[in-house]
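User: Last request for today: this protein with S-adenosylmethionine, please.
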Amino acid sequence: MKPLLQSHGFHFSKAKGQNFLIADWVPRQIAEEAGVDETAGVLEIGPGIGPLTQQLALRAGKVCAVELDERLKPILAATVGEFSNLEILWSDVLKQDVPALVREKFAGLRPMACANLPYYITSPILTALLEAECFESVTVMVQKEVAQRIAARPGTADYSAFTIFCQYYSEPEILFDVPADCFMPQPKVTSAVITLKTRKQRPWQIDDPEVFFRCVRASFAMRRKTLQNGLAAGFPELGKTGAGEVIAACGFAPGVRGETLDIEGFAAIANEIVRRKRHV
Ligand code: SAM
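Assistant: Here's the final one, the structure of the complex with S-adenosylmethionine:
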């Protein structure tokens, strides 16, 4: 890789999260475990110099790769320029209308997202991909600790509002770890590949998603405090007494902590708040 980058006078940009894969097995395994085949339309974020792009284009019906750094144009032309099923968009992925892009580029194909993400914007990218609600799966490399947070179970230290956000939209599964020496330059952290299979149907009844996510945020904003205090702060209209009544109506102990509730538990709390609002 070094001679290729040197011949184009390319220097890595830390600000753009450029840690490029140099171990051949990693992009191959990502493409394979993501289940990419000729029926798939794959959105790749940040192709870099193209190691994952190449593995995706070898398997997929179509690949659309969005890259911010136009200095990579001549390098990608050299590494993946021969693929007729590949289109590169030179743009900031966060400025894209993802559902419109998927409709336009992947008609008749199974839409998937696949990427070695720029770590400085992992959360906003995952948020955009999941909220788009148009992918069958999202398979990404992230920092290992982020993967553990996404896949965490209730009551564990990794369980967070972001866990619930991701698991509301998908069923995450950590696929494999990737050591730092698989990248150039090497990141300071271990990475992991995680796949998020998006839910076709949600197994919970959630009457108002906005109230549900407000409950989750209120609860985790006051981590290690009781759910009652969290809800009272996040829903001033309830007050501490009202929050206590909501918790009791759902059958939870008065001192329950929010971080022990699963999605079904938060759904019950949120639905009870909605019910009380309707009866005011
Ligand atoms: N896929 C390549 C690989 O595995 O070697 C590169 C991965 S590197 C971690 C992240 C890539 O995302 C870089 O090429 C970077 O320029 C690109 N990138 C950073 N921010 C971006 C953004 N907002 N939109 C699109 N691409 C971005």
